[in-house]
Design brief:
The protein is mostly helical and 89 residues long. It has one domain: Monooxygenase. Helices cover 78% and strands 0% of the residues. It is built from four helices and no strands. The protein has helices at residues 3-17, 20-29, 37-57, 60-82. Helix 2 (20-29) packs parallel to helix 4 (60-82). The protein is elongated, with a radius of gyration of 15 Å. The N and C termini lie far apart (55 Å). It holds the Pfam family PQ-loop.
């Protein structure tokens, strides 16, 4: 593996983990009221488009990053529809 390919996969890893803290916090608190449904839908759409692009250019790092972010975004979307909003105090 060349250094540039390693750099691509490392960047892919870093991009992918950006959603992990939010998914974990949402799961722990069972609260996603502050998350915008539009933000989640935009991220889902953009990762699908990037994934198609990655397949077309045969880019493993771009594909792997976007598939992981897509999966995590779909989890947040599921949480958004399944967790009830808490009543304000």
């Amino acid at each position: 593996m060349s250094w540039i390919e390693f750099t691509g996969y490392f960047g892919s890893f870093l991009t992918s983990v950006t959603f992990l803290p939010q998914v974990y916090k949402s799961w722990q608190s069972r609260s996603v009221g502050d998350l915008s449904i539009w933000m989640i839908l935009i991220v889902v759409t953009s990762t699908i488009v990037w994934s198609v692009y990655a397949v077309a250019i045969h880019s493993g790092p771009v594909l792997s990053a976007n598939l992981i972010v897509l999966a995590l975004s779909l989890v947040l979307l599921y949480f958004k529809f399944s967790f009830k909003e808490k009543d304000p105090l």
